[in-house]
Task: inverse folding
């Protein structure tokens, strides 16, 4: 489990592998540095250091800016207020449409009278029905154009 080496008259005891790994690591690094592809990579890296330094500087500035924005309570509150001002009218319209759909469904379920041919012709004169038919017609034309 332990290696024993004698240096002159002194005896030094090393735990297994500790001395070997410590002396082996510099040799491995030197062996790696002697390889031509590693030397070429180091040359490229050294030539790229100004660009890398510039990139790191820009990234640091961007990080500092993002950090200052993320911790700025006033800006966060302003953004929340702006989003709520934008979302509130949309939310109200969606709620209005949803309530109209629910009310129409309830009315359609309670009204069980049949709509005859003349009732359908009378409905065709309604401006809302005409607008819906124009929309459906335009939508179908667009879908047909896109299919081609």
Result:
């Amino acid at each position: 489990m332990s290696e024993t080496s004698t240096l002159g008259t002194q005896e030094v005891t090393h735990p297994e592998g500790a001395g070997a790994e410590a002396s082996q690591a510099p040799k491995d690094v030197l062996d790696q540095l002697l390889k031509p592809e590693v030397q070429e990579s180091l040359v490229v890296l050294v030539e790229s250091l100004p660009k890398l330094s510039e990139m790191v500087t820009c990234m640091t500035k961007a990080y500092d800016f993002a950090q200052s924005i993320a911790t700025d309570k006033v800006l966060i509150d302003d953004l929340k207020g702006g989003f709520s001002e934008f979302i509130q009218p949309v939310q109200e319209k969606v709620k209005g449409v949803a309530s109209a759909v629910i009310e129409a469904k309830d009315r359609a379920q309670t009204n069980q009278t049949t709509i005859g041919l003349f009732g359908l012709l009378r409905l065709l004169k309604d401006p809302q029905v005409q607008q819906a038919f124009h929309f459906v017609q335009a939508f179908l034309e667009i879908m047909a154009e896109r299919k081609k």
